[in-house]
Amino acid sequence: MTRFALSFLTVAALFTSACQAQDEYAETTAPPPQEAVSLTTDDFREVPESQAQMQLSFAPIVREAAPAVVNVYSTRTVQRRMDPFFERFFGQQGPQQQGSLGSGVIVDSTGVIVTNNHVVEGADQLRVVLHDRREFDAEVLLADEDTDLAVLRVETDDPLPALPMAQPGQAEVGDLVLAIGNPFGVGQTVTSGIVSALARTEVGITDFAFFIQTDAAINPGNSGGALINMDGALIGVNSAIYSRSGGSNGIGFAIPVEMVRRVVDAALTEGELVQPWLGARLQTVTGDIAASLGLDRPRGAMVADIYPGAAADEAGLEQGDIILAIDGVDVNDEPGARFRYAIRPVGEAADFTVIRNGEQREVTVPVHVAPGTTEPARQLIEGRNPLAGMELVELSPAFNEEVGFDPFARGVVVLNVQRGSAADYFGFRPGDRVLELLGTRIEEIGDVEALIQDRDDLKSWPIAIERRGRRQEATLQL
User: Which of the following is catalytic: 148, 215, 321, 432?
Assistant: First the structure.
């Protein structure tokens, strides 16, 4: 045997002896064997005792909040029409029932529920299904298209679980939030995210475009569901998503709790929601405007015009005033100011912080409704004149807001034109605003009636109207 082979055998023998010695030492020093322990998730789950611990799990919050979020089923009757060709063979189709699904939030244990207006709009029957699968018929206490909110009530002998409403202004960008609802009708689900932005005004879903933006997944069926904070309080009602595909892309919008509280209070006390009207046309303060006014940065909303006799005029606001805050909350544009003013009930007052001539001051502004009526008296023009056959109404802020006109527009507008009349022959259309007649400026219907009474049967009629924002003049010949 070679010297190399002997050396290898010697090393191997020494290694084997060392391993045996180590095993013997381990057997004498190791603790006695113990039985294996099987752990479950319940052994690690506990109720959080602090805000920091709560970040570890949303389960305690969901257990408290989820029972207050309900499913809202609505059915409506529609008349389905077929192509006349097929009706010859299959006959005319009768009315059919269409159903839709949304979510709602119990905000009062007596059975008061808030949801979106578009969830219940046009419904013949409403049914609410609770978290524990109990079902109730619901009645509509108030449905408001402008805010896209509706308040329902269900009759029950037992108190229902209700979500508390968060304090105004409590939500901040970056806060963790949960969205609870029933997307796609698959049952109640919970998604998490953060508050991505506040005071979003570009959405265009309601007249009071002032939304909480969140990246918590919101899908069809979530409408009317709850957006809650880490205290389990309602900070908004989920209303819409921004998506081309119809699915959640991380941009969802919720109506803030301030407006939710206002609508619920109106439903329970007033029976209707009366919207206040400030009567001031506002303009966003740009960098150039801020520099010209000596402001350190662009902020606030500048008063560009004031309607005579409106709340802003009564309070003493002036053109050029910069509105910095309303009730202590900063505003930077007209939608923000309009929202802050609108959440105040009519008859109360709002505290405005303004800058006038470089000085900051506080102004108390009463909360009033828009002057005028939404259904003004109509006047049919008769006689032998080019206006015969047109129906006129007088403009007012209340009527203008109702039909979508400029709230500050005044004068007389054509509401309807009778077919075959002189007005129809000369091409007048609904929506035309009569500015001048026979060289006289028209302020009210009485001006038109007086001119016609004095000069009826005149052959030549100079007239000026406004159509789609453009002035048009003509001399009409009978």
Answer: 148
Mark whether 223 is an active-site residue. yes
Signed CA dihedral, 223, 224, 225, 230: sign only:
positive
Helices (H) and strands (E) in the chain, counts: 12, 25
pLDDT digits (tens, 9 = 90+) for 150-194: 999 999 989 999 999 998 878 889 999 999 988 766 678 899 999
Q: Tell me, what's the pLDDT at 90?
A: 53
DSSP 429-442: -TT-EEEEETTEE-
Instruction: Check: CB of residue 276 under 8 Å from CB of residue 338.
Output: no
- The DSSP 8-state label assigned to residue 42 in this structure reads G
The residue from 100, 103, 118, 248 that is catalytic is 118
> Measuring CA to CA, how many Å separate 343 from each of 61, 118, 263?
28, 20, 8
Q: If DSSP codes are grouped into helix, strand and coil, which group holds residue 244?
A: coil
Residue keyed to tokens 């381990």: 26
Q: Does the active-site annotation cover 118? A: yes
Residue identified by tokens 């006109």 is 405
Q: Which two tokens stand for residue 90?
A: 């299959």
Q: How far apart are CA 81 and CA 61, in angstroms?
A: 49
Cα gap 177→171, rounded to integer Å: 9
Q: Which helix (H) or strand (E) is 261 found in, with range?
A: helix 257-269
**Which pLDDT tens digit goes with each residue over 253-277?**
899 999 999 999 999 998 888 889 9
DSSP designation for 165 = B
Measured CA to CA, the distance from residue 197 to residue 260 in angstroms comes to: 18
Known catalytic membership, residue 131: no
- pLDDT of 184 reads 62
Cα 445 from chain centre: 37
Q: For residue 112, what are the contacts with CB-CB under 8 A and spacing of at least 6?
A: 106, 141, 151, 152, 153, 162, 264, 267, 268
Name the one residue in this structure whose structure tokens are 């978290």: 131
**Three-state secondary-structure class, residue 164:** coil
Q: Is 345 exposed, middle or buried (0-12, 13-18, 19+ CB in 10 A)?
A: middle
Residue from 209, 206, 208, 197 nearest 252 by CA: 197
Active-site residue among 74, 223, 248, 421? 223
